[in-house]
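Service request form, structural biology core

Requester: graduate student, group of Dr. S.
Request type: structure prediction, single chain
Budget code: on file
Notes: please return the result as structure tokens.

Sequence provided:
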Amino acid sequence: LLLLQRAANEDAYPNMYELPGGNWEKIDETILHTVAREALEETGLMITAICTEFDGFEYTTARRGPAKQLNFLVEVRSDNDSDASGEPPEPTLNAEEHQAYTWVEKGDDLEKFPTSDSMRMVVQNALTQAT
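Core staff response, request fulfilled:
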């Protein structure tokens, strides 16, 4: 599971880890188009399969008001992939939004990666479903 560390200069949750994501835009025909577009924009990774939806959460932001985060387990690849290596692909980050990334698996110590309580529950749920 890919986690991205927010940039230090972010207004909300600086330096915290989160799942890649973003917002629906008018150009998106469906929510699945949003998922594919945001994955590519945030990580440079292309989705090859959308496997399942898993628990999200509702939250409120000062700028946008109430929102709901939808989450999907996906398979990805990058143009630089050596598919035979067995290693996860390396994302390309937008430095204005994220400063680091890590791939986590079930059993990893998630305490090493600071997140909000809501995000930690989502990550734990995703890791349970991914195996």
